[in-house]
Amino acid sequence: MQCLQDQDALIPRPRGTLPKVCAASLAAITIGGIMFLSPERLFGWVAMVILTLTLGPLLHGLCLLAEEMLYHSNTRYRGRGLLSHVLPACGFGGKTLLAAGLAGLMLYLAGHPLPHKSQCWKLLILASVLYALFKSLGVLGPSEVEVSDICEGRKMNVAHGLAWSFYLGYLRLVLPHLEASIAAFRATHHISSPFCGRGSRKLLILIPLNANISHKLEDEDNNIRFYDNLPNTEIDRAGVRRRVYKHSVYTVLNEHGKAHECVVEYATPLLTLYSMSQESSAGFGEPERRQQVLLFYRTLQDILERSLECRNHYKLILLNDENEDDPHFLSKAILRHLQQQEKEEFYLTPPDDGDGAPVGTNFAKMVDPLVQISSAIDRDWHHPEPMSREPTLMYSLEEPQPLKEPVENTDHYYGKI
């Protein structure tokens, strides 16, 4: 499982709630300290601070509202309602308005914390106006982490769109037909061991971190050779009758020259990410490209894991570009994933002991058959093996039969076999 651990070390996990926990802890500690030092003015101070923090965004929202209403009400909102669309888009949300109203009521009931009432209102208005100014100038703008968290949470990244497009426009259409294509391929081709393993019967999708894709795999690694194409899958799509989708079969050689056949291809949306990073007008550099590739992998993995049509028909392979110096890195990565898939299966055939017979065959000939059966049952009972194949639903087409009548069979003689 080493390759899975390596992938987990590269793929960023979704951000959690630790910032909220830290902020709540700091607020509790600070409020507790103020309550200990001057409890009589606690509610006034808290109300004034909350009112300042909510009035600032509301004033900034007014500035945004002026721009939206004057220049973008028709083009961006298509004449939709002011209260239902434009105001929430400018920051006049229900939570902000509710917090400001409760803070104003609390300040009115608790009284002003400053000695003079005019000082309290001057400080409140000045802080709110300066907040709106600094917010408009970008001084109080969201950090990169906040922007990243918002884009990931709302699925607004380039990687999210590319992953969904790759799934809806390609994988969901072709993967359900993959097994039939491989069966047709096996019927017309004669190769050493055609798709005998579970991993070989899947579509291997290569996702390099640098998004640099070669159109021919043999150009990347001379241990990979093109063998042939699977039968075409023809689907009526977007007005095109019998649109053709195809997959290529490659022969991958290991270090001993043994051939392994598999269906493998790159994730084509990565070509878009790489091209965007080469265009200056896209504002998409190499660090952003690498981050988007990782998000593409994580998003596509989440989508495919929930897809019933694609289940057990694919394998995502994340390629780390740190090993580009190895000329056979690509073939080794493919073979490592194929072997990992094969290890998940339980082989019923025992290994060979060197003389052409399974291990332990000669020894088993000298053991009593009853002892062999007893030992096998004991081994299966105490050391159950994993399933030898993927779980399937088994049912019978025969009609149910009535239960048999009990038969008396206790009349026997002891000592007889």
From TrEMBL:
It is found in: Cytoplasm, Perinuclear region; Cytoplasmic vesicle, Autophagosome membrane; Endoplasmic reticulum membrane; Endoplasmic reticulum-Golgi intermediate compartment membrane. It is a multi-pass membrane protein. GO terms for biological process: activation of innate immune response; autophagosome assembly; defense response to virus; innate immune response; positive regulation of macroautophagy; positive regulation of type I interferon production; reticulophagy. The chain crosses the membrane at residues 21-37, 43-65, 86-109, 121-140. InterPro entries: STING, STING_C_chordates, STING_C_sf, STING_LBD, STING_TM. Residues 44-155 form the STING transmembrane domain. Pfam families: STING_LBD, STING_TM. CDD domains: STING_C_metazoan-like. GO terms for molecular function: 2',3'-cyclic GMP-AMP binding; cyclic-di-GMP binding. Keywords: Endoplasmic reticulum, Membrane, Nucleotide-binding, Transmembrane, Transmembrane helix. It catalyses: H(+)(in) = H(+)(out). One of its GO terms (cellular component) is perinuclear region of cytoplasm. Belongs to the STING family. This is Stimulator of interferon genes protein. The lineage of its organism: Eukaryota, Metazoa, Chordata, Craniata, Vertebrata.
